[in-house]
Write a structure and sequence with these properties.
Largest sheet: 7 strands, parallel
Oligomer: single chain
Structural class: alpha/beta
Number of strands: 21
Strand content: 5-15%
Strand order of the largest sheet: 11-12-10-13-14-9-17
Length: 699
């Protein structure tokens, strides 16, 4: 262990060896926070300060939890530490679920309670809204899933018409169905701790050391959970690792005040700053540091590196969004490997022009954040079948799969079966067995119910699910399908069965893991797949957090787009600046920021100022050589003209009244003569017809 500790820098080693009392590790981008967390756990075990099951390590994604577990195992194996698998390492949801499963009676839950993801929540809310006599078009279920989840996570957002009615009816229906949603997993654990002190005392005493990754992303309820678990000690051994400068998820309920107020919440806390960056070159970090210093709500730190200054951050202006896409494509075409490059955008709507240019140039790319594996219809179908096999009271799963394949049992019949189930206080599957149906429907229902009547408990999960899908006619449905993508769907089903389910000892464990996977905030595996396949990655900045690339392109850095106008109006400028900081620090060697004089978005042409963030970066690390027109340039630059063949364009240069004009059209940059444009748009007309933004560009 001592040999490994010697490889840490001074601040990292201090964070590892400061084991007692509350510790906040401010870990800047690329400073090795996972390395510190793993080393801290290994150090605690090697010193005999705690046994594996006395350590609680909390993360935000299953991917992060799995990586931490494997790295802990690798490091501790060198020190002959036993029982590593008994460390309580996982996401907030998985750890709370583990506690609830062990205390269902005390928590007021049935032993086999179900976990409802977003699709199931929508289905429940649809029924609730209709049963309350409300307009489904006005009270859209998908929107109410977000509202209710946000309220459960933060305690905010209840000031809406009929909120209490919908909220109470929704929770009542969840209870009737024997299910909980994802927010409930944490909230019911908190309620368990608050209402049953003995349970809290048990876990509070068990977890001698608590470690939290990405602490800046915690919401109010997660922070409350930590306070309860750490509350049985005057100076709790809680170590939270995070970066206030990378807090970018307030829209998901994350509260930056948790990390900013850590020292106030835990008196005597030690704050350790990790500022040595191992990812980016000096000029990239200089630009990022200069930008983030404009934020007031931060604890403060400056990243530094030993990798040399490297290239400056390039600031490039383009005549239009189409030119912007061409510039990016040109530079990517010159790189050694496509997978070295990433295009990070503020919002998904900005990808279209770039995708079209890449397709035209045959540049392979992958759009990260597209549909996740567990969100695919066929995967959800298989999971629903497996859930109904393991829990025949799961009405939502029955409603999903009874028509996959079609059996002539429509919504009207299902509604009647559901009403019967409610009246008899039983499940829909039980009600279906007794419900009077027409002969053809009765035969189809009998065939469906018979598919579940086999000795699946004596089979492996893989064999049980395969047998069920075969008996139910689901595999036959896809094999005989005329859909163009049927082979992809069958491939996905085979991957789920052979690549996932086959690794579990029982169906219940698989279903629990599948439920947790649907709660993953982002496509954690998408970027890795893009790298492996040799593609350029296109993704939002939010999706790129935690990733790194040799070359990063940041288009559309224009006010109203980035920073986002709505976010600024809502007081979110500092979070937008943190998002920009995250974007810049994804780059290892080269970072290119682009903005255009005109941009087509949502069917309209916009003329925005360059982002204020460009000016805020100032001189350190940034090269404005390709920046927008200076005040000394021609006053016609930036104005719009119309051409009979090329359409509307933006003037890029016009050096004399009779000289050539360089114009950015949608089809590309063209050189035209003054006589080619309408007479009223000649210099004099242009001056009176269009408002120049020349004076708004940075010098």
């Amino acid at each position: 262990m001592e040999k490994f500790l010697a490889t840490l820098n001074k601040a990292q080693r201090e964070a590892v060896e400061t084991t007692e009392g509350p510790v906040l590790v401010l870990s800047g981008a690329g400073t090795g926070k996972t390395r510190v967390l793993v080393a801290r756990i290994a150090h605690i075990l090697a010193k005999g300060l705690a046994r594996p099951w006395e350590i609680l390590a909390l993360t935000f994604t299953n991917k992060a939890a799995n990586e931490m577990k494997s790295r802990i195992a690798a490091l501790t194996s060198e020190n002959s530490v036993q029982g590593i698998s008994e460390i309580w390492c996982g996401t907030f949801h998985s750890i709370c679920l583990r506690i609830l499963r062990r205390n269902t009676e005390a928590a007021g839950l049935r032993p086999d309670f179900l976990i409802y993801g977003e699709d199931e929540q929508k289905a429940v809310l649809k029924d609730v809204i209709l049963n309350l006599g409300l307009d489904i078009k006005q009270y859209v279920p998908s929107e109410w899933v977000e509202r209710i989840s946000f309220f459960k996570d933060t305690g905010r957002g209840a000031a809406r018409e009929n909120f209490d009615r919908i909220f109470d009816a929704y929770n009542g229906e969840l209870a009737r169905l024997g299910g909980v949603d994802f927010a409930d997993i944490i909230n019911k654990t908190i309620l368990l701790f608050e209402c049953v002190p003995d349970v809290l005392q048990k876990y509070g005493a068990q977890f001698k050391y608590i470690l939290v990754d990405e602490y800046q992303d915690t919401n109010a309820r997660q922070n409350r959970l930590l306070k309860l678990l750490a509350g049985n000690r005057a100076a709790p051994n809680i170590c939270c690792v995070g970066d206030d400068d990378q807090s970018i998820y307030s829209w998901r309920g994350a509260e930056i005040k948790n990390i900013l107020n850590f020292a106030r919440e835990y008196p005597g806390a030690k704050i350790i700053r990790l500022e040595q960056n191992y990812r980016s070159t000096g000029n990239i970090l200089a630009a990022a540091n200069a930008l983030i210093r404009h934020n007031e709500g931060r604890l403060g730190k400056d990243l530094r590196t030993d990798l040399g200054d490297g290239e400056k951050v390039r600031i490039v202006s383009a005549g239009s969004c189409f030119d912007e896409a061409r510039i990016i494509a040109d530079r990517i075409s010159e790189s050694a490997s496509f997978s070295d490059n990433a295009v990070l955008i503020r919002s998904g709507s900005l990808s279209r022009v770039i995708e079209e240019e890449f397709a035209r140039r045959q540049i392979p790319y992958r759009l990260i954040g597209a549909q996740k594996f567990y969100d695919r219809a066929e995967i959800r179908d298989v999971i629903a079948y497996a859930r109904l096999l393991a829990a025949d009271f799961d009405d939502l799963s029955l409603a999903r799969v009874i028509s996959r394949p079609r059996r002539g049992i429509g919504d009207t019949t299902l509604d009647a079966v559901q009403d019967s189930a409610k009246q008899k206080n039983t499940s829909m599957m039980a009600a279906l067995r007794m419900f009077p149906l027409k002969p053809k429907q009765a035969a189809a229902a009998a065939e469906f119910l018979t598919a579940f009547d086999f000795n699946w408990r004596d089979m492996s999960p893989k064999d049980a699910v395969e047998t069920l899908l075969d008996r139910a006619g689901y595999l036959k449905m896809w094999n005989e399908s005329k859909d163009a993508d049927k082979e992809d769907r069958l491939k996905n089903i085979r991957e789920l069965i052979s690549g996932v389910i086959a690794h579990f000892d029982n169906i219940q464990d698989f279903l629990e893991q599948a439920s947790l996977m649907t709660a993953e905030p982002d496509d954690a595996g998408g970027a890795a797949a893009a790298l492996e396949s040799g593609n350029v990655s296109i993704m939002t900045i939010h999706a790129a957090k935690g990733l790194e690339f040799e070359n990063v392109f940041l288009p559309a850095w224009e006010d109203k787009i980035f920073p986002n106008e709505m976010a600024v109006d809502d007081g979110g400028l500092e979070e937008e600046r943190r998002l920009a900081y995250v974007a810049i620090t994804r780059a290892r060697r080269r970072c290119t920021i682009l903005y255009s004089l005109s941009r087509q978005l949502f069917g309209q042409t916009q003329y925005n100022q360059p982002s204020r963030f460009i000016q805020e970066m100032g001189a350190p690390g940034a090269d404005n050589g390709d920046a927008a027109p200076k005040k000394t340039r021609d006053p016609m630059v930036g104005k719009m003209i119309s051409h009979p063949d090329f359409g509307t364009g933006v003037v890029m240069s016009w050096n004399s009244p009779d000289g050539e004009i360089k114009v950015a059209f949608k089809s590309g940059v063209k050189i035209i003569l003054p006589e080619e444009i309408a007479p009223k748009q000649k210099r004099k007309g242009l001056k009176s017809s269009f408002t120049s933004r020349r004076d708004d560009y940075p010098d």
